[in-house]
Amino acid sequence: MASLLKVHDLTVCYGDRTERQIRAVSGVGFDLVEGEGIGILGESGCGKTSLASAMLGLLPRGGYVLRGSAVFRGTDLLTLGEPGLQRIRGAEISLIHQEPALALNPVLRVGDQMAEILIAHRRMNSKQARNEAKKVLEQVGFSVDSNIDQAFPHQLSGGQKQRVVIAQAIACGPALVIADEPVASLDAVVQMEIINLLQSLRKRLNLALILITHTPDILVPIAQRILVMYAGRIVEQGPAHQVLEAPLHPYTQGLLKCGLDLFPRESSVRPLASIPGEPPNLAALPTGCAFAPRCSDRMEVCEARAPIELHPEKTRDVWCFKYE
User: Fold this and answer.
1) pLDDT > 50? residue 16
2) Which one of 134, 188, 213, 226 has the fewest CB atoms closer than 10 angstroms to its CB?
3) Is 0.90 surpassed by the pTM of this model?
4) Rounded distance, CA 197 to CA 182, Å?
5) What is the Cα–Cα distance from 51 to 178, expressed in whole angstroms?
6) What is the Cβ-side half-sphere exposure of residue 120, based on CA atoms within 13 angstroms?
């Protein structure tokens, strides 16, 4: 299948362009086909959000793309100016933010906020846009008689706010939705409701979905492939069930041990696991493997040079000297 999005060698920096650079994303590449769901997994600060923001031209002040490309339907997003990106954002690619309360305008009713998006991208008049907004809100689980379109954000629960943000994201029929930690602020029950909703919409609307998270278990229902990031780089990628059941990279293994036991083989009580040490300072990365100082499997070569991409299995890639 042809790629919907093809990211190649994407490198994102913060700081001065001529002097000290902090590389938040370094040499990241992946392909995404229409209707596919992929997960980007990693600790906070590993570069996941910077990756998504760079593709949409939403990097904060001081951030810039050093090199690379992000080709969406034949157009490199990184070469577009703001007018070009504005035509794509919300219409062809949508972003679901981590905190729905910050993504919604507190002084506008839900229906009015959605109508603004539809008017901007689909050239509807106000009446048409408000009617369409009601239909989209029904798609994300609100009943016809809920009058949710008349509510202000402060009148909604956390789960309701996130459903509204999802409705905004799908309103114009995008091909790709990027969800950045979409359930981080919700309780466990509501988290799974939102994840199941995203999976249902992905299948029903043939959406491609990039789900960014530090929580492995929420990827189980939704991701067909998983990319694991550490210190701005991909360290492992492959089919979701293989990465979650039999991770190759020591960092992925540590992440899964720290989370829930996704595939328990027997009932047991175990202490909470942790990965020793701390993530590296991106302004002063080690010469070799960035994970080496925290890795129980490290070898002499790990500190001498950076690992290259290896293919221990046909469908899997890993950056680790264990498989060289």
Assistant:
1) yes
2) 188
3) yes
4) 12
5) 11
6) 17
